[in-house]
Design a protein that fits this description.
By secondary structure, the chain is mostly beta strands. The chain folds into 2 domains: 178 residues, no CATH class; 303 residues, no CATH class. It contains 7 helices and 35 strands. The strands form 10 sheets. Strands 29-28-27-24-23-35 form a 6-stranded mixed sheet, with helices on one face. It has a 4-stranded antiparallel sheet with strand order 1-2-7-5. Strands 31-30-19-34 form a 4-stranded mixed sheet, with no helix packed on it. Helix 1 runs parallel beside helix 3. The protein is globular. It comes from Platanthera zijinensis. InterPro entries: Vps62. It holds the Pfam family Vps62. This is Vacuolar protein sorting-associated protein 62. Keywords: Signal.
């Protein structure tokens, strides 16, 4: 308890004095260098532009080669940057072998195979490095010349230092020639692109990432005091719609105010949940055997549905990214209730009855920090079953310039970087579900009372409620068709059919009648954001 008190005093010091994470003592995090075995990795942000496919179309990309490398460092591949939203190059990793052994960690390729040449003027040529036995290339090359690159222009990595991993997202550029589709991908692993020429584009793209373990993660990622400094400096301000009736609360407030645990074995005998959630079943899978619900008393139900902003806190999950270059800090908010969906049908805004209502709602944003300089690079805004990444330079900040805004939608609580209306549906026809955010409503400082509930690489003790893998609300039973007909009874016939078509095409999670599972059951908990 004494050490915990000292830690809290240090957190208060960080808050009051505004220290950056790189000013707090730690291991490799924020020091500009990461060591994987005998490989020394650095980020490079200086590039030579090699080629771009004409003007800057939204779907294009510009290709670069790292330049001005320190002595002894080599590229691991060329870099590419999609034109949307920003065509400027970002970062790529360069490497140096410090082993001086007979089995070096890095090796020059034995040669190159030409993957594809463009028909443009000037032309570009994409090359696959051919590694020596026991090594793997983690990036490909682009040149402006048809001549094979020099062997010294890239390094391959020894196989025992790599693990297979998944490449998220689709290609950043593609073209078709002689029945073969040529695609270029930019995984968030090393900042190097991978190219492929295959009939129909081929299957899954093979990708190798640097192997990590508990020791390397603890060394390259922020420690607990650095995490606190990052939260105090960069945690978002959450902004809720002025008309939002369903605000977040803390989990303990939800439990203290009558939340009930139900089980299939005794569905008519629910039990009150203690503030810490100790009675909740731990681990396992969402087998439908348990669920949570509001208090039975109607007046208590309405009280709990409204939430309690003064008790609300951000629950923090710190996790590694597939790329060793980054750390993700995830800010989770809990809402006791998710309100009904609203739709826009041309010039008419319409509530959809009870469609979209459910008990228990977990929403999040994710901030991605560089392990090299400790700076905020991007922020992810979760939006129902998907979301979007926004570069740090494009975020909306408070007056101090380091705290980004996150706007929660009315009733549905999806997050967006700017206030306004986003339609989910047939946008070109002006028909869709309304994700509506606005300024002027209640706001929440995510740094105030932020609770780090999980950082596995640091051994943070997780609260019992986080191990509850079942649903945080019951399955609501109502007639979806009747709710829809009742909601649109005053619409003209043409607009009624348009709304029916919209609802029929929407994924079930947008009109969910079931309480969601908790944070640990989300696909992004142990992986990168989609």
């Amino acid at each position: 308890m004494a050490s915990q008190g000292i830690l809290m005093l240090f957190f208060s010091f960080l808050c009051c004095h505004g220290l950056k994470s790189t000013e707090v003592p730690g291991d490799q995090f924020g020091k500009g260098v990461i060591h994987i075995g005998d490989i020394e990795l650095r980020e490079v942000s200086t590039f030579t532009r090699i080629w771009s496919p004409g003007l800057l179309p939204a779907g294009g990309a510009t290709f670069y080669s790292p330049s001005s490398l320190p002595s002894g460092f080599f590229p691991l591949g060329s870099h590419a940057q999609p034109h949307n939203p920003n065509p400027l190059p970002r970062r790529a990793l360069i490497a140096r072998d410090t082993s001086h052994s007979s089995s070096p960690s890095l090796a020059a390729p034995a040669g190159f195979t030409l993957l594809f040449s463009t028909n443009s003027s000037p032309s570009a040529h994409f090359w696959l490095p051919l590694p020596p036995p026991g090594y793997t290339p983690v990036g490909h090359l682009i040149t402006a010349s048809p001549q094979k690159p020099l062997l010294s222009s890239i390094r391959c990595v020894r196989d025992d230092l790599l693990d297979p991993c998944q490449a998220g997202g689709g290609p950043i550029w593609s073209t078709t020639s002689s029945g073969h589709q040529f695609t270029v991908h930019l995984p968030d692993s090393l900042g190097t692109f991978l190219a492929r020429a295959a009939p129909g584009g081929g299957g899954a793209l093979p990708l190798a990432c640097f192997k990590t373990n508990a020791l390397t993660l603890a060394a390259m990622m922020p420690n607990l005091t650095q995490i606190t400094a990052m939260i105090q400096t960069h945690a978002p301000w959450f902004h809720f719609h002025p008309d939002e009736p369903y605000l977040p609360s803390s989990v303990s407030w939800f439990f203290n105010n009558g939340a009930l645990l139900y089980t299939n074995a005794t569905p008519n005998s629910p039990v009150r949940i203690d503030p810490a959630g100790d009675i909740l079943p731990q681990g396992g899978a969402n087998d439908g055997a348990y669920w949570l619900d509001l208090p039975v008393d109607p007046s208590s139900q309405q009280f709990v549905k409204a939430g309690n902003l003064s008790s609300a806190k951000a629950y923090i999950h710190v996790k590694p990214v597939t790329s060793i270059a980054s750390t993700d800090i995830v800010f989770w908010l809990f809402y006791p209730f998710n309100g009904a969906a609203k739709a826009k049908v041309e010039f008419v805004n319409i509530g959809l009855g009870r469609l979209g209502e459910h008990v228990g709602d977990w929403e999040h944003v994710t901030q991605r920090f560089s392990n090299f300089d400790g700076e905020l690079k991007q922020m992810y805004f979760s939006q129902h079953s998907s979301g979007s990444w926004v570069d740090a330079a494009d975020l909306e900040y408070d007056a101090g310039g380091s705290r980004p805004a996150a706007y929660a939608t009315l009733h549905g609580h999806a997050f967006y970087p700017k206030a306004g209306l986003v339609l989910k549906g047939e946008v070109e026809k002006g028909i869709g579900l309304m994700d509506l955010t606005a300024k002027g409503g209640p706001a929440m400082d995510a740094a105030d009372g932020a609770d780090v509930v999980s950082a596995e690489y640091l051994g943070v003790e997780e609260p019992p409620w986080l191990q509850y893998m079942r649903e945080w609300g019951p399955k609501l039973t109502y007639d979806e068709a009747k709710e829809l007909e009742r909601a649109m009874r005053f619409l003209p016939g043409k607009l009624k059919q348009a709304l029916r078509n919209l609802v029929n095409k929407l994924p079930p999670e947008l009109l969910g009648e079931e309480g969601p599972t908790g944070p640990k059951e989300k696909a992004s908990w142990n992986g990168d954001e989609a």
